[in-house]
Specification:
five-stranded mixed beta sheet; alpha+beta; single chain; Glutaredoxin; binds glutathione
Length: 206
């Protein structure tokens, strides 16, 4: 399987889940400024949306969308228990969190805070929305260690990936210490750390 990714982008969630599930992955880096691969290939010829992540299966099937990809990978490795079985209420809860992260966090951060030309009024609106969402998560995580309850799921991989953009984009995390502790706890998971090292986001321990 190949994962088209860009370091620190939302594709990190898929990368983390593959490692947590112990599934081998070939990483293909996409330069999101030029939408080209390292060999010069125009990424739009591979994925017309120009987005990462994209997963390419060994038979050539191409799949997109973080929330779908993390569930696909987690279902391939049920023993890793990264997602509850399909058809259960617990699965719907995790899907609810995946959708929340996608629509309320990911697409609030991006594109608005990543683009310098975003109007100040839009930025303020976005920061207000994120503050409300972070306050909700901070309170929830004071009651339970992970979004869907007692165990780490694909929804945590996605939330971690997006909320860790905060310091890069000057989104204040200090008012949400429990949320900060949640990010730190996830960053220490051995497979998450491996993914961060592989993407050049943290140094390998000496
Ligand atoms: N709905 C897509 C969004 C993916 C997305 O926004 N990817 C960003 C990186 S985090 C990207 O590739 N942006 C490149 C661009 O906008 O051209 C998903 O959930 O996979």
């Amino acid at each position: 399987m190949k994962l088209y990714y860009s370091p620190a982008a939302c594709s990190l969630a898929v990368h983390i889940v593959a490692r947590e599930a112990d599934l081998p992955l070939e990483l293909i880096e996409v330069d999101l400024r030029t939408h080209r691969l390292a060999d010069g290939t125009d990424y739009y010829t591979i994925n017309p949306r120009g987005y990462v992540p994209m997963l390419e299966l060994d038979d050539g099937t191409r799949l997109t969308e973080v929330a779908a990809l993390v569930q696909y990978l987690a279902d391939l490795a049920p023993e890793a228990a990264l997602v509850p079985p399909a058809g259960t209420i617990d699965r719907v809860r995790v899907q609810g969190w995946l959708t929340f992260v996608s629509s309320e966090l990911h697409k609030t951060f991006s594109p608005w805070l990543w683009h310098k030309e975003t109007a100040e009024s839009t930025k303020q609106d976005v920061l207000g929305r994120l503050a409300r969402h972070f306050a909700e998560l901070d309170a929830l995580l004071a009651q339970q260690p992970y979004l869907a309850g007692e165990t780490f799921t694909v929804a945590d991989a996605y939330a971690f990936t997006i909320i860790r953009w905060s310091p890069l984009l000057r989104v204040e995390l200090k008012p949400y210490p429990t949320l900060g502790a949640y990010l730190a706890r996830i960053a220490q998971r051995p497979r998450v750390r491996e993914a961060l090292v592989a993407e050049g986001l943290v140094k390998k321990a000496a």
